[in-house]
Structure formats: C-alpha cells, structure tokens
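#struct-help
A.M.: can someone run this one for me? Single chain, 187 residues.
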Amino acid sequence: MAQEIIKKRGKKILIIILVLVVVLALTATGFMYYNSKPSKTSNQKSSGAPGTPLKNPTAGLSLEQAVAQFDESFVKYLLIAIKANELHNPPLSSDTPRINFYIGEETFQSEISDGKISVSKGLAENEDIIIRTSPEEAVKMVQNKEYVSTSFRDGNSQIELVAGKLTLFAKGYLSLYEELTGESVSP
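D.P.: on it. Structure tokens below:
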C-alpha cells in the first residue's frame, strides 16, 4: 500500500517536472525568437514612410547654428544613430522602452514602440535610462555618427541605467550600453 502511494506521488512529481520543463523551453524559445526577428532598417522604422530617409537636422549648419536650433528632431536623429529603434518591449509585455535626456538645460523624453521613436520635451516617468550631455556634444554626435561612442567613452556624455538589469536586458539596452561605453553589464 505504501509503495503504491509512493509510485503515484512519483508519477505526479514527474508529470509536474515535465510540464515545467516544457513551459520553460517554450518561454525560452519564444524569447529567443522575439529577440532574433530581423529588424527593418533604421530609416523605415523611424521616419514613418518606408524607404524615406530621415534628414539630418544639422545638414548645412555650423555647430553654433545647430546648437541654437536644437530641438526634438535632433534627439530623434541621435536615437537613430545609437540604434535605439532596435529597443523593444520585453516578451509578453506592453512596457515600452523610455529614455530621458538632459541636454544642457533642456529635457526631452523618448519612447520606442514597435521600432518607432517618439520624442517630446519634458521628462517621462519610469524611464529606463537617462542620457546626459551638452548641446554641443549632442550636435557633434548628430553631425557624425562615428563620434557618438567617442563622446560616451571620453566622458563628455553619460548614460545612467535606471531600470533593473533584467528589464534593461529584456528591452535590449545592455548591448546598446556596451556599444556606446565599451563597458559590459551582465544581467
């Protein structure tokens, strides 16, 4: 009788373990699929019209002129330069990536939804990261995409990780952070 009860419990435990393994495997597969989906090009995702490139707002302007005209379009172009349009919601979540910017005395907020970047003045609540830089540095980064990582690595611009590492990983920030700063952050 006791052996029969032990066999029944053993079978139940085995079934529970198998169900958990299957659920974990499906979750991991879904997560890997979600993170490996081919992305549209930066211009297609950010400008709204497929194939229409987003115009660099600094084109034809001196550094001083660009600083004087700095607005949301500069921030959006900078976000495209750092590939922020590749950030995404965590799997099975509606928690969109949000970035706050402190550019000199001005503040901007951005949100990435389905690869589309929206930018407005002010600060977002529950931001994932904060980027701080001067207007001159921001303009230099918009003028020359190659300068972006130099600005962060030289300390002229800073990234502050606000959200937890697991959230940052799930949204794609950790690879962006490593690319910009040269520093690795493990989840």
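A.M.: thanks! Strands lie at 98-103, 106-113, 116-121, 129-133, 158-161.
D.P.: also worth noting: The chain is about 50% helix and 15% strand.
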